[in-house]
Design goal:
The chain is of the alpha+beta class and 783 residues long.
């Protein structure tokens, strides 16, 4: 049900107990069915029991709920490792619906779950004859059974439950990326099913009555025949028939009794199910109304706070209002698993002081004095630049309530939320990845740097610049179809060519490769993990970004931060970036630690602030990075560092004496009328422009995306459904093949990265050669 499954996913900790609808119901205190197996008496928490002493100290036997045939339900006592002080402690474990939960006592099942682990992604291991180790991500359970036999029973039950949970998870996912929304037709179908069941039960009752009636009549007729004066041979035959009829009567009576019991039980449970279903519906409606009301109250309080007399200007969040000027949002609500500290308390770990140039510190240090005239990838006029469009059709003014769609999707993956194109922008995720190259000349400049720490400054500025396009872009890009590609060939104009391919659909993953003849190569495989949390949406890009400079061999690796979209229910949508980026040069061991500060009403810092320090392999700091992810990044050279005062948390701050800052990167202004063109930058306006000679799988050729860009949204929604259904059919045919071993990308291949040790998709070549020959015979028909 909605409350049991979706709402539980919102409550921290992430692996916390599910509500009672997930099987956390009290077991019977005494007795069990005759066929029910009993859990052997558990003894000490040290090791497997072996002697009489252990048996004498054993607690009383406790009944374990039997596992129905084909069921994954299992209950019983196990010892769980707690800590070195208390060692193993006896706990009551319940295995149900692919979840293993535990309690201190059986009585706790009614109200308090101590922890739950999801078996669909868990690893099950056995250390010795009695121990079981369950691990899932950062959580590990060390369990000890009473005996080797009992340990084997649990391992078998866990393995079966894990296999069933994996099958259920796979069945719920399909290649379309969208789940069917709960609609009025689903409710009608449920009522129809219940009505059909009731009708069948009535038919069964009628059949019972008829069998009893006709069986009695047959018995009477045979008795009358037996009393007639007939030859001896006929009498014997009639007697044999009478005996068979008697057996039929006995069997029929047994079946009638069983049917009557089933009918009574079904009628009783049918009423119970209907009451439970009605209760869950009422609770769901009440919960939706409560969430919406709380969001409106929160929004009203925010407006009242901002409008209160004497409120400092820095307390006011700059919510986008349709203008193209920069907008500032509120603090990012951290994920439920993350401990959050307000920006006012989480003070920076260092202080920057500008050095006096009269004290002998040179001001003409190596980095360029100001931001150079970076050549823009799209929209910038230059001699060899091809003519590109500078506008797209204005966004239609369609009114659609986002909350009406997303209220049923709390806790789900964003890629599985059924979303019409009304909440998209006319670009795919592959094109959004390509947008990271808008400030590619930062890397061209980094090639010329003699110092690796100086080069790190430009790489850090480039990593921050990729977020500047997201400041107003709260719409969702199209989920690429499996095998979809996108190329951006700017080898002649800007020296680079880029290729993206969707290499997985669940989870959604895209591989990206960029080669620049000006001295660098960038590659990445990004998997998007996203969760709708009710009031906000968390988007977590997973995967490393690699950048290598050809001449020096410097190899940089970093990962993206979390993006958060706020005011999903009510108010103006706005986006924030929060978290930390650690950029590592794996050749020189230089590091840059960048911190994206989440917005806070109570912070005096500039909203969207980014700070960081560039240090060498010995940990010596060389540069201080500062700025905002939506406007600019500056770099200050450190001439002296010292330890300052101790903060209230007991941490000693470092004071960096620096030269005047130099601007490394500054955001380009948005084009005119950008607010009516999805707030696209000059580059974004050109990304979906039709080009000749591209692969038939290129995002530019995707029909629903093209229809949306043209403003024909209704047709785009119909086309989107057609494409998704076509992809489902292809997936079913592919999986029906006997030798199918999973999807194999066309232009990328999976290899273990020698730097990070991760299995990633890297470019294997062949695309640009196929383009030169115009040989696209290997490309599937996905559109």
């Amino acid at each position: 049900m909605f409350l049991a499954g979706r709402w539980a996913a919102m409550v921290p900790p992430l692996w916390g107990c599910y509500p009672r609808a997930h099987g956390c119901t009290p077991a019977r205190a005494h007795g069990s069915s005759p066929a029910s197996p009993r859990l052997p008496a558990l003894q000490g928490a040290g090791s497997c029991p072996g002697g009489a002493r252990g048996r004498s100290a054993a607690p009383p036997q406790v009944p374990r709920s039997p596992a129905a045939p084909g069921s994954d339900t299992y209950k019983g006592w196990l010892f769980k490792w707690t800590n070195y002080l208390k060692g193993y402690q006896r706990r009551w474990f319940v295995l149900s619906n692919g979840l293993l939960s535990y309690y201190r006592t059986q009585a706790e099942m009614a109200h308090t779950c101590r922890g739950t682990i999801n078996l669909s992604t868990a690893h099950i291991d056995t250390e010795d004859s009695c121990n079981i180790v369950l691990s899932n991500g950062g959580r590990t359970y060390h369990l000890k059974a009473n005996s080797e036999v009992e340990r084997q029973r649990w391992v078998t039950a866990l393995e079966l439950a894990k296999a069933k949970a994996i099958r259920m998870r796979n069945n719920q996912s399909d290649d379309s990326g969208d789940e069917e929304p709960a609609s009025q037709s689903d409710k009608s179908e449920l009522h129809g099913t219940l009505k059909t069941l009731s009708s069948k039960l009535e038919d069964l009752s009628t059949c019972n009555d008829l069998i009893a009636k006709h069986g009695a009549a047959l018995q009477r007729s045979l008795s009358e025949l037996e009393n007639l004066k007939l030859p001896a041979e006929s009498g014997e035959k009639i007697k044999a028939v009478n005996e068979r009829a008697t057996l039929f009567r006995i069997t029929s009576n047994a079946m009638i009794n069983a049917c009557r019991d089933f009918l009574d039980l079904a009628e009783t449970h049918s009423r119970k199910w209907q009451r439970a279903l009605q209760y869950e519906r009422e609770q769901r409606i009440r919960l939706e109304e409560t969430i919406e009301q709380l969001a409106k109250q929160h929004n009203s309080l925010e407006r009242a706070c901002r409008g209160a007399p004497g409120t400092a200007e820095h307390l006011k969040p700059f919510v986008p209002t349709g203008s193209v000027q920069s907008s500032k949002g509120e603090a990012s609500d951290e994920d439920e698993e993350t401990e959050y500290f307000d920006a006012m308390e989480d003070a920076p770990a260092f202080i920057t002081v500008t050095a006096d140039p009269n004290e002998g510190h040179p001001e003409d240090w190596n980095l360029e004095d100001s931001v150079s005239r970076l050549g823009r990838v799209g929209g910038m006029k230059c001699k060899e630049r091809r003519s590109e469009r500078t506008r797209i059709p204005d966004k239609p003014n369609y009114s659609l309530n986002l909350w009406s769609i997303m209220k049923n999707c709390i806790g789900k993956e964003l890629s599985k939320i059924p979303m019409p194109v009304n909440f998209n922008e006319p670009l795919s995720m592959l094109q959004r990845l390509t947008e990271d190259l808008e400030y590619h000349e930062l890397l061209d400049k980094a090639v010329k740097c003699e110092s690796s720490t100086e080069q790190m400054c430009f790489v850090a500025a480039f990593s921050v610049s990729s977020y500047s396009t997201t400041v107003h872009r709260t719409a969702k890009p199209f989920n690429p179809l499996l095998g979809e590609t996108y190329e951006l060939d700017r080898l002649e104009e800007f020296g680079f060519r880029s290729l993206c391919e969707q290499v997985s659909h669940h989870p959604p993953a895209a591989a990206h490769h960029v080669f620049s003849k000006r001295g660098w190569t960038l590659w990445q495989e990004i998997t998007i993990a996203s969760k709708f949390r009710g009031k906000y949406l968390s988007i977590m890009p997973l995967g490393a970004i690699h950048l290598e400079f050809h001449s020096s061999g410097n190899h940089y690796v970093w990962r993206k931060v979390t993006s958060t979209v706020h005011n999903i229910i009510v108010g103006k949508l706005w986006i924030d970036q929060s978290g930390e980026i650690e950029i590592v040069n794996h050749k020189s061991k230089d590091k840059c630690q960048l911190k994206f500060t989440p917005y806070s009403y109570f912070s005096r810092d500039v909203p969207r602030k980014v700070t960081g320090v560039v240090s060498d392999a010995d940990g010596k700091a060389h540069y201080v990075m500062s700025g905002t992810w939506d406007e600019k990044m500056e770099c200050s050279k450190i001439v002296h560092s010292s330890h300052g005062s101790t903060s209230s948390e007991g941490k000693q701050k470092t004071v960096y004496q620096t030269l005047s800052p130099k601007v490394l990167w500054k955001k380009y202004p948005l084009p005119e009328n950008a607010e009516n063109m999805y707030f696209f930058s000059d580059l974004a306006l050109t990304l979906n422009e039709p080009e000749e000679r591209v692969a038939p799988t290129d995002s530019r050729l995707r029909p629903d995306q093209r229809l949306m860009e043209s403003g024909r949204w209704d047709e785009a929604n119909v086309e989107k459904q057609r494409l998704e259904e076509k992809q489902r059919a292809v997936r079913r045919r592919r999986e029906a093949e006997a030798d199918y071993e999973g999807y194999i990308p066309l232009w990328f291949e999976r290899k273990v990265d020698p730097v990070t040790g991760e299995l990633i998709c890297v470019y294997k070549g062949g695309y640009w050669e196929a383009k030169d020959k115009q040989d696209w015979s290997v490309c599937p028909d996905i559109f």
